[in-house]
Design a protein that fits this description.
Keywords: Amino-acid transport, Cell membrane, Membrane, Transmembrane, Transmembrane helix, Transport. This protein has 224 residues and is mainly α. The chain has a single domain, classed as MetI-like (MetI-like fold). Helix content is 80%, strand content 2%. The protein is flat and about 70 Å long. The model has no long low-confidence stretch (mean pLDDT 89).
Length: 224
């Protein structure tokens, strides 16, 4: 194997590494916000009655996003924005939108599971003290649910980093896009891709270990 190209292209790799991180960080941030919003839309209530239109809207969005491949969604957002909206998204914007739409439905389920893992007695105790349902949710239930939610969102972030490679299809200069260009320039079909794979491994392995450490810390604090 020939890795002599590295010295001439390492700047390109580190630039594309930053693009991968930026794309993943922006996407997971907005996906988390949208995922939380979807959860509250899906479970929205007026008094004791569920607000059905909002619940149906959130459920429909979740089902559609589960069934549409993210690569196809990315291409639709990038290519169809001019037709649907009258202007073009940049490749970075289109990639962020597609990843956010896809990841948010899984984060919605993470939020649901995290909240449901909190003992129902916590909500009942807060309500018995005179708190409204909304106030009890934000001041009593959510702080406890965050301990369950954060490690799972970290795992979703690992998935987002790997899925960000799909953005190469619409021209985002992330790791896979750059390594394919280097392959074409150096006539080396394998080695530039192996370098990209090494970067992805370091990113995801490090983040996975960090999330495992965070999860263990939460368990230790719960056992005290």
């Amino acid at each position: 194997m020939n890795f002599s190209f590295w010295s001439g292209y390492k700047a390109s790799y580190f630039s594309s590494l930053w693009m991968t991180l930026k794309l993943s960080l922006v996407s997971i941030l907005f996906a988390t916000l949208l995922g939380v919003l979807l959860y509250f839309l899906k479970t929205s209530r007026l008094g004791y009655k569920k607000i059905r239109p909002l619940s149906l809207l959130a459920s429909a969005f979740i089902e559609v996003m589960r069934c549409v491949p993210m690569l196809l969604l990315m291409i639709i957002v990038y290519s169809g924005s001019k037709i649907a909206l009258g202007f073009n998204f940049t490749s970075f914007q289109a990639a962020v939108i597609a990843i956010v739409m896809n990841a948010s439905v899984y984060i919605c389920e993470v939020v649901r599971a995290g909240i449901e893992a909190v003992d129902r007695g916590q909500m009942e105790a807060a309500r018995s003290l005179g708190m409204s349902r909304r106030k009890a949710m934000w001041l009593v239930v959510m702080p406890q649910a965050v301990k369950n939610i954060l490690p799972a969102i970290g795992n979703e972030f690992v998935g987002v980093i790997k899925n960000s490679s799909m953005a190469s299809v619409i021209g985002v200069a992330e790791l896979l896009f750059t390594s394919k260009n280097i392959s074409g320039a150096t006539f080396l079909p394998l080695e530039p891709l192996l370098v990209a794979a090494a970067f992805y491994f370091v990113l995801t392995f490090t983040l996975g270990r960090l999330m495992l450490w965070v999860e263990r810390r939460y368990k230790v604090s719960d056992n005290r």
